[in-house]
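Late entry, evening session. Most of the bench is empty. Finally got around to the prediction I had been postponing all week. Sequence below, unchanged from the version circulated by S.P.
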Amino acid sequence: MSAATRSRPGPAAGPEGFTLAEMLVALAGASLLGAALIGLLASQSRFHLRNEDGIQAAQTTRALLDGMGAEIRGAGSADLLQATPDTVSLRFDVLRTIVCDTVGGGGADLFMYDSVSATNLRSRWRGTAVSGPYAVPWIYADGFTPVSGVSADAEATCRAAGADRANQASARQFRRASGWGGRFGATPPRGALARVYGRLTYSIRASSSEPGTLSIRRNGQEFALPLGPGATFEYGMSDGTTQARVASGDLSRVAEVRLVATAIGRNRLGARRRISHPMPLRN
């Protein structure tokens, strides 16, 4: 009997490898997926940057309307000192007082019923205006302020005249001031109003922190930015016309100041707000 013939097993089959074509297809698919992800991330980033620009443009607009607008609206046409396409300059009240009575030697007892703490006002430029007591136009004395100081006698005089009926004013609000005759010719009478003011200037200048844009400066310091090109001030006159520049002799005819500008964002991706904001002056 012949011995059983044993068959020898063949080599074990190993895993099959990728062909070159399959690898190229896989790489192409990965590249397309990566490009799609990069495009999506770039689109999302651009969306957020554009959204930031829109928010910043809105904040710039609000700062101009609430800040600069409020200060300019508080001035009268007689307070204007300069009106050009890039600069608005005006007298800005620091103290407002009423004359309680006059005293010998050219003095007046004052009740300071309002004071304004305005930052960045040019402290070296002060003036005084007097009016009254019966709707008399304001008389201005730029560069002059009377000599004054807190006075207990002024407080007694003013309280006797009816000032501070609610008894809420502090002692520093009652002052005695002298030296009026040097600029006004006489001491203002009882019941007259007196204002001490500084100079406030808004100007349109090239931005120092955002190259290629404009900014609004308040007494030389950047107040609102960035703005696009073409920002300007315009002036509505009492006769209904609009002027880009007003001569010094016609400043009293200005009825409103208008800022025409475009607020943009720092990323400059197209989000912007057009500003055409009228700021009427007090009569």
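Two things to note before I forget:
Helices lie at 20-73, 152-160, 181-184.
The longest strand covers residues 87-103.
Will write this up properly tomorrow.
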